[in-house]
Design brief:
The protein is α/β, with parallel strands linked by helices. It folds into three domains: 20-180 and 354-402, Medium-chain alcohol dehydrogenases, catalytic domain (Quinone Oxidoreductase, Chain A, domain 1); 195-348, Rossmann fold; 461-581, CBS-domain, CATH 3.10.580. Helix content is 28%, strand content 21%. Strands 3, 5, 6, 9, 10, 17 and 18 form a seven-stranded mixed sheet that branches. The chain binds NADP nicotinamide-adenine-dinucleotide phosphate. NADP nicotinamide-adenine-dinucleotide phosphate (NAP) is lined by residues 64, 183-184, 187, 209-210, 212-216, 233-235, 239, 254, 302-303, 306-307, 324-325, 327-328, 350-351, 396, 431-433, 436, 439.
């Protein structure tokens, strides 16, 4: 061993792993924005297990996960690992890499010391019974994203990975290009090839959201290579050329439409009608770009909340909307009629297994996948690259950083199999997604290790309710019901049948009844035709916290209070706020 630690950019002899290395570390006491959370330190190179490999990192890919890791939210990744028995009090991020194999465990057979590789970020315990039974490791409870959910990612001179994660590096790519495409490429591959019956066929139209983004730019190329027809959605005409160069048949500028967001209520005939006009206009644009009246058999989704209603509507009968993120929000609204009557599939997808990663990489090796590295940084700027992401000042497409590579443009050892001109984004392009969420978010499980603590101050519904209630009958006209509402200054009436409560007539019901009708027509409708059947109710002796949960769940502001199953009063959100904040 010649040196204890090598300078960044000074490669140790192949196969010689020094005891120490330079690395960018996140520590708990530095949690915060990237310029603060990342710090360069010298630490021990980790030991490996029999199925693991040490790779000398030449370049690393950047993604948003390690902005979150540095902020310490929504998960403190260091604490989470400490809890699982791993003692390190730091995190080294980085979930994409190109580099050279320097050391292998005794069970590793797919690579040898000296191999030039790219690394995919899917790791799992090879002894997990689910995996040993031959199932898709993506469903294994041991599945973890390397460099976010595991330590020793690629922002260091050496990274520790499982052997199966190493794949041959395309010889025609530079180190920085090779570090840019695997995470997004493999994710896009599984989305497009991982859900049989809905694997695209030559000639199939495919709608791709965010065509100029990291995932979208990979999807365009994968769809094109399959002989299917990629149509990209973008937010500015300055990105058309980029997507066309990657292989898109054409583009749709989403800024030409304004029907985005959650679906209007299906009873809101005017709102729904407006939305329908918007989505049809979008569909007509799709036909125009495609050059024929066919709908996409696959819709490639990741924006989520704002685009899902459109995706599910525009998708062909029997087709699939496949989604791997909810960048604009997690509450997708679905008009279920279109889902079941037109027998569409709404499929979640997350990263990729070995088979899918290798298949995607074969496309890259064959020269059919441009890495779309939009911006490359030197090693010292790893915090800056993340800060730009944090501040939404980074470009579309993929970013990478040099680690061991001493300069830009190195690492090519062969000509491109298919010579082509690089697709480039406009020079002033910056990213348009407000705040992407981490690739892996912590989700609740059936068996949580800690009890869920419920806080309740002991107040009962009877302590805060209004006794009595204002009512009408099913046979009353809306005109009469409206008069009762205004005379009593209430927002909803209990609809009674004998001494039972049959339902509620709310102001929302009245507004919806008026949609598409004249005042005169609406006034003559009977309450029974538009009321909401059944009454959301709670018992007079129920805790307030239970009543609050019920209101939140149903998104309503009032509950009927019952005693021995007979209506006795009303609890309103105003009563609850008074209780929470004090009457003054
Ligand atoms: N589950 C997984 O395995 C996995 C893997 C990789 C990435 N992801 C996630 O997937 C998402 C996308 O990743 P990426 O690398 O492609 O990000 P990216 O490079 O930022 O691209 C996202 C694209 O979405 C488009 N977009 C932004 N706001 C939109 C809106 N309101 N409606 C429609 N499109 C909008 C933008 O394009 P325009 O402005 O041009 O429309 C942007 O280029 C992220 O949330 C990422 O974390 C998940």
């Amino acid at each position: 061993m010649t040196k204890e630690v090598y300078n960044v950019g000074e490669a140790p002899p192949v196969g010689e792993v020094p005891p120490k290395m330079h690395a960018w570390l996140i520590r708990e006491e530095r949690f915060g924005q990237p310029m603060q959370s990342f710090k360069s330190e010298v630490i021990d190179v980790p030991d490996i297990k029999d199925d693991e490999v040490i790779v000398y990192v030449m370049a690393a890919g950047i993604n948003y996960n390690n902005v979150w890791a540095g902020l310490g939210i929504p998960v403190n990744v260091i604490k989470a690992r400490n809890k699982a028995g791993q003692p390190e009090d730091f995190h080294i991020g980085g979930s994409d890499a190109s580099g050279i194999v320097y050391k292998i465990g005794k069970d590793v057979t797919n690579v040898k010391v000296g191999d030039e590789v790219v690394v995919h970020c899917g790791s799992w315990d090879r002894n997990c019974p689910w995996v040993t039974a031959g199932n898709d490791p993506m469903y294994s409870p041991t599945y973890k994203i390397w460099g976010y959910e595991t330590n020793y990612g690629s922002f260091a001179q050496f990274t520790k990975v499982q052997g199966h994660m190493c794949m041959p590096k395309p010889a025609h790519m530079t180190w920085e290009e090779a570090a840019a495409y695997v995470l997004v490429g493999a994710t896009a591959w599984r989305m497009l090839y991982g859900w049989p019956e809905h694997t695209m066929k030559p000639g199939d139209p495919v709608l791709i959201w965010g065509g100029a983004g990291g995932l979208g730019s990979m999807a365009i190329q994968i769809v094109k290579a399959a002989g299917a027809i990629p149509i990209a959605v973008i937010s500015g005409d300055d990105k058309v050329e980029y997507c066309m160069r990657l292989g898109a048949k054409g583009c749709i500028n989403r800024k030409d439409f304004d029907h985005w967001g959650m679906l209007p209520h299906w009873k809101d005939s005017v709102g729904y009608g407006e939305w329908m006009k918007g989505v049809r206009k979008f569909g007509a644009k799709f036909w125009e770009v495609l050059g024929e009246k066919r709908q996409p058999t696959v819709v490639f989704e990741h924006p989520g909340e704002t685009t899902i209603p459109t995706s599910l509507f525009i998708c062909e009968t029997g087709g699939m909307v496949v989604i791997c993120a909810g960048t604009t929000g997690f509450n997708a609204t679905v008009d279920l009629r279109y889902l079941w009557m037109r027998q569409k599939r709404f499929q979640g997808s997350h990263f990729a297994n070995d088979e899918q990663c290798y298949a995607m990489n074969d496309l890259a090796l064959a020269g059919k996948l441009d890495a779309c590295a939009a911006r490359v940084f030197p090693y010292d700027e790893i915090p800056l690259a993340h800060q730009l992401m944090h501040d939404n000042q980074h470009p579309h497409g993929n970013m990478s950083v040099l680690v061991g590579a001493p300069d830009f443009g190195l690492g090519k050892s062969a000509e491109e199999p298919i010579p082509h001109e690089r697709a480039t984004l406009p020079a002033d392009d910056t990213h348009s997604t407000p705040h992407p969420f981490p690739l892996s978010v912590p989700l609740a499980d059936m068996s949580e290790p800690e009890d869920i603590k419920l806080v309740d101050d002991g107040t009962k519904v009877r302590d805060r309710m209004h006794k009595g209630f204002i009512s009408c009958t099913k046979e009353d006209t809306l005109e009469h019901a409206a008069k009762i509402m205004f005379d009593n200054d209430v927002h909803a009436l209990v609809v009674t049948e004998g001494d039972e409560a049959a339902g509620v007539l709310s102001q929302t019901d009245m507004v919806l009844a008026r949609q598409g009708r004249t005042i005169e027509e609406a006034q003559q409708i009977t309450v029974g035709d538009v009321m909401t059947e059944g009454c959301a109710s709670c018992d007079v002796d129920a805790p307030m916290s239970v009543a609050i949960t019920q209101m939140m769940k149903l998104r309503i502001h009032r509950l009927l209070v019952t005693e021995n199953d007979k209506p006795v009063g009303v609890l309103s959100m105003t009563d609850i706020v008074k209780n929470l904040m004090g009457d003054s």
